[in-house]
TrEMBL record:
SUPFAM superfamilies: MFS general substrate transporter
Primary localization: membrane
Protein's UniProt keywords contain Ribosomal protein: no
Example GO biological process: protein localization to membrane
Gene giving rise to this polypeptide: LOC115699557
Protein name: Transmembrane 9 superfamily member
Annotated family: Belongs to the nonaspanin (TM9SF) (TC 9.A.2) family.
Subcellular location field: Endosome membrane; Golgi apparatus membrane
Keywords (A to Z) from UniProt: Endosome, Golgi apparatus, Membrane, Signal, Transmembrane, Transmembrane helix
């Protein structure tokens, strides 16, 4: 610590055919070397075009670089000399110091020495602190060729810094595009205002008019000629087809919603900073497991309302269905990574721990929640359901279920899509994501948008005397996941330069999991909004 070193020799390597091929592949694929010192990742400071502004930090440094030689064929050069700068903050009282920065400048140098190579006391003529001969450029670079000898060297320089230890991460998390985020928030707020206006109009004008009109229709003749949503009051709370599956999906969505909400609150309060590696992932998994209580509770409440009796079956399906689908995709992806002998594969022990969390904690909690939910009295419908279902009249083309479901997904996706770009960039292009404040705002906007678009479309649907709203409300806002996946595909082809099959499969596998989770989350928000809305309007009309 605080001892400057120049031209330390790390090792000497003579390239054979296999190593040469591997180095060339890594340089071609732009691999980066990452190091950590005192929990700080190594950065390469790249200057911006305007010299005034602070440099952009790139995580790690490239293994090497490709260049054209005079003969026009491509040559590969390896960075074999690293010049480290360690920044420290000195405590005035005790004269101790703490590390607050870790930077590197890589160079490619063809090192030379006189005489025979002698481990430990060879002096390089290209880099010698005694003759003040140091490496400051890559003018005579080290080529990667079979049979060539490469000598790896490094310098360490210590610099005092004013940055305090507590704020040493600030340079990494510098937000360089605040404007874009504000633009995205404003864009989303416009969508929300537009929708809120529509909902308010429906609620006040139409519903108020409808309800007062319906409640005035006292005479028998007028009652015969009812139109609009009141007509279907005898069918609107009829349990849908596959009602069990709907309960399971709603339960899973509640679990997901709870997980995201609590994680976001923790992140906004600053508990999940990137300096704590893997903190975010751990928090998500643990919260998912403990939110099983709410999943079981909400699934069995709705199941009981649908006159279901076998609560254990619903509890089991809620506890197992979503995690089983996700973990099977994950397992396949992990097998692919494992087949590539990558260090990114999840080890067997961790897999076992995840399965234990799922079956040891999550499943029992779902059962407890289901039991509690099923013990409570069933939710009463505001109107009675007729014995015989009425016929649904011919619908206009724009009220076709598929069309209205696809339309419903556009606005919630539009509300989050700019923030999505940043999240994808941080996941796939190795940058830090630390704008949880913005993300929380966007999440709130997403909830409002999903709820409002579903209510608007649900109202139009009931007005055209189509009472099959249960699944439709879930799918209307859930269809935004389809747009999410399409956007991820677009992002893959425009922003990422992935050529290997396994990497592509990994990308699409993970984005599929993300889209599926997004479907469950947004669908549930839409379902509950519509559920509340229909109960509200049908409990406010007098029905004989």
């Amino acid at each position: 610590m605080r001892e400057t070193r120049m031209c330390n020799i790390a090792c000497r390597l003579t390239l054979d055919a296999k190593t040469t091929k591997q180095f060339k592949e890594k340089i071609n694929d732009e691999y980066r070397v990452n190091m950590i010192l005192d929990n700080l990742p190594l950065v390469f400071p790249a200057r911006r075009l305007d010299q005034e502004s602070p440099p952009i930090y790139q995580l790690g440094y490239y293994v090497g670089v490709k260049g054209q030689s005079a003969g026009k064929d491509e040559r590969y050069y390896i960075y074999n000399h690293l010049s480290f700068t360690v920044k420290y903050h000195k405590d005035v009282q005790t004269d101790t110091a703490r590390i607050v920065g870790f930077e590197v400048r890589p160079y490619s140098v063809k090192h030379e020495y006189e005489g025979k190579w002698n481990e430990g006391n060879t002096r390089l003529s290209t880099c010698d602190p005694h003759t003040k001969q140091t490496v400051v450029n890559s003018n005579s670079p080290q080529e990667v060729e079979e049979g060539k000898e490469i000598i790896f060297t490094y310098d360490v320089d210590f610099k005092e810094s004013d940055v305090k230890w507590a704020s040493r991460w600030d340079a990494y998390l510098l937000m360089n595009d605040d404007q874009i985020h504000w633009f995205s928030i404003v864009n989303s707020l416009m969508i929300v205002l537009f929708l809120s206006g529509m909902v308010a109009m429906i609620m006040l004008r139409t519903l108020y008019r409808d309800i007062s009109k319906y409640n005035e229709l006292e005479t028998q003749e007028e009652a015969q000629e009812e139109t609009g949503w009141k007509l279907v009051h005898g069918d609107v709370f009829r349990p849908p087809q596959n009602s069990d599956l709907l309960c399971v999906y709603v339960g899973t969505g509640v679990q997901f919603f709870g997980m995201i909400l609590v994680t976001m609150i923790f992140a906004v309060l600053g508990f999940l900073s990137p300096s704590n590696r893997g903190g975010l992932m751990t928090a998500l998994l643990l919260l998912w497991v403990f939110m099983g209580l709410f999943a079981g509770y909400s699934a069995s409440r709705i199941y009981k309302m649908f006159k279901g009796t076998e609560w254990k079956r619903i509890a089991f399906r809620t506890a197992v269905m979503f995690p089983a689908i996700v973990s099977s995709i994950f397992f396949v992806l992990n097998a692919l990574i494992w087949g590539q002998k990558s260090s990114g594969a999840v080890p067997f022990g961790t897999m076992f721990a995840l399965i234990f969390l799922w079956f040891g904690i999550s499943v029992p909690l779902v059962f407890v929640g289901s039991y509690v939910g099923f013990k409570k009295p069933a939710i009463e419908d505001p109107v009675k359901t007729n014995k015989i279902p009425r016929q649904i009249p011919e619908q206009a083309w724009y009220m076709n279920p598929i069309f209205s479901i696809l339309i419903g997904g556009i606005l919630p996706f539009g509300a989050v899509f700019i923030e999505l770009f940043f999240i994808l960039t941080s996941i796939w292009l190795n940058q830090f994501y630390y704008i949880f404040g913005f993300l929380f705002l966007v999440f709130v906007i997403l909830i409002i948008t999903c709820a409002e678009i579903t209510i608007v479309l649900c109202y139009f649907q009931l007005c055209s005397e189509d009472y099959l709203w249960w699944w439709r409300s879930y799918l209307t806002s859930g269809s935004s996941a389809l747009y999410l996946f399409l956007y991820a595909t677009f992002y893959f082809f425009t922003k990422l330069e992935i050529t290997k099959l396994v990497s592509g499969l990994l990308y699409f596998g993970y984005m599929l999991i993300a889209s599926y989770a997004f479907f469950v989350l947004t669908g549930t928000i839409g379902f509950y909004a519509c559920f509340w809305f229909t109960r509200l309007i049908y409990s406010s009309v007098k029905i004989d």
